[in-house]
Amino acid sequence: xxxxxxxxxxxxxxxxxxxxxxxxxxxxxxxxxxxxxxxxxxxxxxxxxxxxxxxxxxxxxxxxxxxxxxxxxxxxxxxxxxxxxxxxxxxxxxxxxxxxxxxxxxxxxxxxxxxxxxxxxxxxxxxxxxxxxxxxxxxxxxxxxxxxxxxxxxxxxxxxxxxxxxxxxxxxxxxxxxxxxxxxxx
Length: 186
Ligand code: HEC
Known about the structure:
The chain is α+β, with helices and mostly antiparallel strands. It has helices at 3-20, 22-25, 34-44, 47-51, 124-133, 149-152, 157-169, and strands at residues 54-57, 60-63, 91-92, 98-101, 104-107.
């Protein structure tokens, strides 16, 4: 077989393999670059539901994406939540960022890369450890409800790293979220 013919035969064979095995050549979710993969996971897993303050939009309440993932706004002075009842134990603020229940009152964290008030000074290992252990940065106090870390920690390390890479890529917003408040006296 002459060289050009051989080359043609090889490239034709490659085209057939590519066409029949196309599904395995197309990039799968986990093959995306980490930031894109992280964006996909953060969007699909509802982090904006709690970590982006809600406001009244044209179609009703919705996350205010100008404050994307910046947590409970420090500028909002909330009155103390009313005492819950056994039937209705949990209350949530209009922004969906402050939650009161039997654990006290928790405020959603700033997940933007701001170094002082967000995740900017965290390492990927601290981020993964926080979600694996349910402790602040993997070593501090217990992370309170309704943060769904028992669900999020079902992601493998590569996906958690991708979530962290995406969070470090979004606009930094300076917003110092308050510390949680203890449960109200009974
Ligand atoms: C149902 C509401 C809710 C959802 C959904 C949610 N979070 Fe949270 N998250 C919280 C609350 C509330 C806190 C603060 C808890 C506290 O202060 O103990 C928190 C805290 C955190 C913290 C800080 C942990 C620490 O070590 O201090 C991280 C990181 C975090 N969330 C990441 C995420 C990511 C990533 C997602 C989406 C995959 C997500 N959260 C989805 C409510 C939520």
